[in-house]
Amino acid sequence: MRLSILAVLLVVFMTACKKETNEVETKISQKDNFWVVLNSEKAQKTEGEWTWEFQLDRPGDYNIQIFRKGKQDTALGEVSVESAGMTLKENPETIFVIGETGKEETISQFAKTIKLNEAGLQTLTLRSETPIDKVRITPQYSKNLGFGTDKYYDAWLKMHNAPEKQQALEWFKQAKFGMFIHWGLYSQAGGIWKGKRMEEAPAIGPKVSEWLMYKFEIPRNEYAELAKTFNPDKTFAQNIAKLAKDSGMKYVVITSKHHDGFALFDSKVSEFDMVDATPYKADVVKELYDACLAEGLAFGVYYSHGNDWYDGADGNFKNVKKVNDSLGILSHPNGKNLWDPSPNTHAEYIAQKALPQVRELLEALPELRLIWFDGDGYITEDQAFEFYKTVYNSNPKVLVNRRVGFDFGDYLDAGDNKIPSASEKMTKYFETCGTTNNSWAYKSYDDDWKSTKELLYYLVDIASKGGNFLLNIGPDGEGHVPEQSAQGLLEIGDWLKTNGEAIYGTTRWTTTREGNEDALLGGTEHRAKKGFSQTFSAHDFWFTAKENKVYAIAFVNPETTVVIKSLKLENGKVASVRLLGDSSEIPWKQSVDGLELDLTHAKVGTNGYVLEIIMKNKK
Ligand code: GLC
Questions:
Q1: pLDDT tens column, 7-51
Q2: Domain 6-139 belongs to what topology?
Q3: Residue boundaries of the structural domains of the chain
């Protein structure tokens, strides 16, 4: 009973709230669709504590905002919010005062977001010494580009489910391991501009070296000068394709145009490209495409559709901000060119450069396998859909990643250098992209190279969770790959030559791992700060599966016997056991406690070993 009253009140309230937001003409997105507003009057209240139940329509990352009536000069003080098993405790900062004179509202927002992973009925409890008026829960737009309105959902689903797409997705799931390449004009600078390093640059934002133009606020004309000296080695394409192949990678994705707006391919709609603006004068994307196909590798392009610091105006920032400010929503200037924006509008850029260039790529590269969109730049839901549709109409076999925006991707990514936990629910197949040091593009002074074991661990951990690993290289201005990163890749290639069966074409098994805890990779900056402290023991195993086979992957040689607990009798009868890369017999016995193996005489490598366990029945 209480619930239904609450639900009715909520609907009434949300309708009222919608009316309020609709008064602001917004062509940007229907942001209010997934907002939840909890009024203090409707809460279950005790001293300093408010509790609500509410309906959540869409899982995701949400911002928590606290509203106080009037224009408040004093800080809110410490507030805690609990929902979906997560607690935020902060002194939320005041970010906006909205509303006309006499009807102002002061909005404070938590710096951290809250993950609401499941749609449905939720509870939220707030504790605060200072009285509050309401809580507003809004999707985190800076990351997700908002949730959109679902108006394109059916049309999108039809394309996504088309047989060509699904076949492509099948290929993708089998491939498991790909090469990401960040390379462009910025590679010549290697993270240093006029004697200063990225870390000393004026603008806040990521320190990865492909953000050179942004961090040093380099005017467009000055930045364009870098094209005049971009004359890489002619053997770039062959070298890279060979490296990818020898590293056991199945696909290659290159930055055909990064946020700086420079196209590595031959574009008819822009002069700021490899053919028109550099002494190299040739289409290096096409060269790499040909070289990859010759090596039997699939080919994809990264394309920054939202951000284009050269031609994309201010990334639609001012328009978005105007609307957001009136609603009390923060707009993030990160990645938007506010120092020297091009004079056109962002919409003109989308129509006259971004969409046409995507069409050019699709036409020039008929065997293209995927387009890896990036850089939201506050594109609209209509535009995001247009990109998806443009790709589909030109070649339905081409996959599109999540960052095209508004959930229109064919697959998900877990975020830069982020590995999801085994229990995280994924709505689509996923890929994690990762770096070999702490930058995507070449950074001459970043020597924090990840060891082969660390990289291998990521590959295996991701595969055990049923995803792909897109591992990056950042060639220098000449197109040469830093020795240390090439070395790591090649060592993974060696490991895969023996153990590839445990990775390619596999899926998740019932258990993803046993032994030590799931150590998560928490993002590029996180890894840069924290380093890698994971230790491995002979009792740690990761699992993958294929037909009636289970693969147990270990990084440490046990020297004697070892027990794999997850393979106890209860979980299925073992028919046979084989050590990949070694034909000698492995003595084993299975019991209610696990599968015991004697590896005393087994030939295992420095990076561990893989057991192929054939089950009597398919599990
Ligand atoms: C981010 C960065 C970009 C990099 C990409 C890789 O979006 O802006 O520089 O290319 O992640 O995933």
A1: 444 444 444 443 333 333 333 334 456 889 999 999 999 999 999
A2: Jelly Rolls (2.60.120)
A3: 6-139, 162-309+339-410, 513-517+531-615
- What distance in Å separates the CA atoms of residue 397 and residue 456, rounded to the nearest whole number? 30
For the entire predicted model, the pTM comes to 0.91
What's CA 100's distance to the chain center, in Å? Answer: 40
Q: Which residues make beta-bridge pairs with 55?
A: 121
- Dump the DSSP string for 93-117: EEEEEESSTTS-EEEEE-SS-EEE-
Q: Whose CA is nearest to atom 11 of ligand 1?
A: 416
Please enumerate in sequence order all residues whose Cβ is within 8 A of that of 23, keeping only pairs 6 or more positions apart, or say none. none
CATH code of the domain made up of 162-309+339-410: 3.20.20.80
How many C-beta atoms surround the C-beta of residue 368 within 10 A?
A: 21
* Residue 374 Cα to ligand 1 middle (Å): 7
- Note the pLDDT of residue 16: 40
Q: Which of 2-11, 183-192, 307-316, 381-390 has the lowest mean pLDDT?
A: 2-11
DSSP 200: G
Q: Report the DSSP pairing between strands 86-90 and 192-193.
A: unpaired
- The rounded percent of the chain whose pLDDT value lies above 90 is 79
Maximum distance among all Cα pairs of the chain, rounded to whole angstroms? 84
Indicate whether residue 431 lines ligand 1 (CB < 6 A). no
- Which 8-state DSSP code applies to residue 459? H
Cα–Cα distance for residue pair 147/322, rounded to 1 Å = 20
Separation of CA 183 and ligand 1 centre (Å): 12
Choices 2.60.40.1180, 3.30.1050.10, 3.40.50.300, 3.40.50.850: CATH for 513-517+531-615: 2.60.40.1180
> Tokens 């060269």 label which residue?
287
616 CA distance to ligand 1 middle (Å): 45
For residue 303, report the distance from its CA to the centre of ligand 1, in Å: 10
Closest C-alpha to ligand 1, atom 8: 375
Question: What is the Å distance from ligand 1's center to 596 Cα?
Answer: 45
Cβ atoms 39, 133 nearer than 8 A: yes
H or E element that contains 498: helix 483-499
Distance CA 610, CA 605 (A): 10
Give me the residue label for tokens 């907002």.
35
- The DSSP bridge pattern shows strands 60-69 and 79-83 to be unpaired
β-sheet with 86-90: strand ranges across: 44-46, 49-56, 120-128, 79-83, 86-90
**416 in ligand 1 pocket by Cβ < 6 Å?**
yes
Classify residue 230 as left (phi > 0), alpha (psi -120 to 50) or beta: beta
Distance between CA atoms of 267 and 277, rounded to whole angstroms? Answer: 11
Helix (H, G, I), strand (E, B) or coil at 550: strand
